[in-house]
Amino acid sequence: PSELAAQAFVGVLRAGHLQAAPDYRVERRVCAGHDLLLATRGHGHVLTLGRLFPVAAGELAWIHGARPHAHWADPLDPWELLWVRIDGPSLEPIAASLGIDEQPVFSLPDPARLTRIFRRILGLLGAPPPALEALLYREATRLVASLFEIRQDRPAEFPVGTGLPPAVRRTTEQMSLYYYRPWRVDQLARLAGISAPQYFRSF
């Protein structure tokens, strides 16, 4: 990406499609960016921060490149992957908000939706049109937004504000998802449907 795109966008560094052999394995101490691996068939494994996570067809693994990591195919049922490597200054807080270090694997309620995004990214890289970086940014942002939706819909995998009243928990979820907004107490109280003093007393 250009210098401007690297600072302004969630950029796509590389992307591809892989039908893994039974002995396929990648192991790295670090690499640039974040790898998103979408298993379209078969099974594999991801190792990050010393923890092992199985990955099945219809699941996506987010690998943080700044952490030592490895991924490999199940030799009895090697995976087929669509993958994309993304990078940008906003990805560090996004990965933290999504709880990537604790749970890097997403079970996708609609794998076809994300498959279409991956395929559009591959198509854009295969035949670069004008405004390529902006178009790739659009697709990468759609991909990340889809993962936010999944974690928001499944609070058991990504607990935020547990132990709080449901109305107040809704505000902590919104603050986690939209961390870049300048939230004010009166806005949060309105979102919870209570007064600002009641909101303070809820903690």
Q: Which properties best describe this structure?
A:
203 residues, alpha+beta, 5-stranded antiparallel beta sheet, 4-stranded antiparallel beta sheet, 7 helices, 38% helix
Distance between the termini: 44 Å
Q: Summarize the amount of helix as a percent range.
A: 25-40%
Strand order of the largest sheet: 1-8-3-6-9
**Low-pLDDT residue spans:** 154-162
Name the helix and strand elements from N-terminus to C-terminus, one letter apiece. HEEEEEEEEHEHHHHH
- Proportion of residues in extended strands: 25-35%
**In this structure, how is the largest beta sheet organized?**
5 strands, antiparallel
Number of strand segments: 9
What Rg, in angstroms, do the CA atoms define?
19 Å
The helix/strand class is: alpha+beta
Mean pLDDT: 85
**Number of distinct helices:** 7
Q: Assign an overall shape.
A: globular
Task: Describe the model.
The protein is α+β, with helices and mostly antiparallel strands and 203 residues long. The chain has helices at residues 3-8, 91-97, 111-126, 132-153, 166-177, 185-192, 196-201; strands spanning 11-19, 25-28, 34-41, 43-48, 51-56, 59-64, 69-73, 80-87, 105-107.
